[in-house]
Specification:
This protein is mainly α. It has one domain (about 5-250). The protein has twelve helices and no strands. The protein has helices spanning about 10-25, 35-50, 60-65, 65-70, 75-90, 90-120, 130-140, 145-160, 160-185, 190-205, 205-225, 230-250. Helix 2 (about 35-50) packs parallel to helix 6 and helix 7 (about 130-140) packs antiparallel against helix 12 (about 230-250). The protein is globular, with a radius of gyration of 18 Å.
């Protein structure tokens, strides 16, 4: 999936679009909710790619295939402390946050690449999503992700204004999410399900704006990744199919 095949054009756009959004989500200036937004976008990428291949997944299956967001975004008490410190010293932490955003966008791209190949797999079985998640993780082990990371780094640097502007738009989603979630918790209603649905509706409402904002950047990043050695992606694809064949024989 490097852009040469016109049949691949839509999945490529979907992966790059979400990868950039996921990275930009870390610029949301709301502690904890920035990562909440990144995870939401990761699940959205899984769902969109599945639909592009006419794969019907349940909510739980989408979550299972969003496994990498749990590795890319740390969890636990130390993260809560880190988020609080970030809120206090946001300027000091900006450089680290920028680097983390680049790493996250890179992880999302590789995840999206493998998901696209997985959903195109003729023997794909939704009942095996937990095994597929492990297979994708194994396929990526040892791969030189710095190649794609370098492309994202150079374009994040040259498109700083666009990404920060995108972060502001994503902030409006998270602020609405936080207010509605808090109000529902006070009324003891289903806060999680309803507010995530609200986030989905708001995101879809502004989808064309996000795509317009990112159009040139997506084209530029796609060109950069397309210039990388074809063998890099062939190796990644072969590793995935090797893991999938292993699943079929066990």
């Amino acid at each position: 999936m490097r852009g040469e095949d016109s049949g691949k054009a839509r999945p490529i756009f979907t992966v790059l679009y979400h990868s950039l959004l996921i990275g930009a989500a870390l610029f949301v200036p709301v502690p904890l909710l920035d990562e909440k937004m990144a995870i939401f976008l990761w699940k959205h990428m899984v769902s969109d790619l599945a639909k592009s291949h006419h794969r019907n997944l349940t909510k739980q299956q989408v979550i299972a295939l969003s496994y990498q967001s749990r590795f890319a975004l740390s969890e636990g008490c130390l993260v809560v402390l880190g988020q609080l410190l970030k809120a206090i010293f946001r300027t000091v932490f900006f450089f680290l946050e920028w680097r983390k955003a680049i790493n996250l966008a890179t992880e999302a791209y590789y995840s999206g690449y493998l998901l696209d190949e997985l959903f195109a797999y003729e023997a794909f079985d939704p009942a095996k999503v937990d095994q597929y998640a492990i297979a994708m993780q194994k396929a990526k082990q040892g791969v030189n992700t710095k190649l794609v990371q370098g492309v994202f780094r150079s374009h994040f640097r040259s498109s700083k204004g666009v990404l920060l502007s995108l972060g502001k738009w994503l902030s409006s989603i998270t602020v609405g999410y936080a207010k509605d979630s808090w109000a529902r918790r006070r009324k003891k209603k289903n806060a999680e399900g309803a507010t995530e649905e609200q986030m989905e509706n708001f995101f879809e409402m502004h989808k064309s704006r996000f795509q317009t904002l990112l159009q040139e950047l997506i084209t530029s990043v796609q060109t950069g990744i397309g210039a990388l050695p074809k063998e890099h992606f062939d190796e990644l694809r072969n590793r995935l199919f090797e893991e999938l064949r292993r699943l079929e024989t066990t």
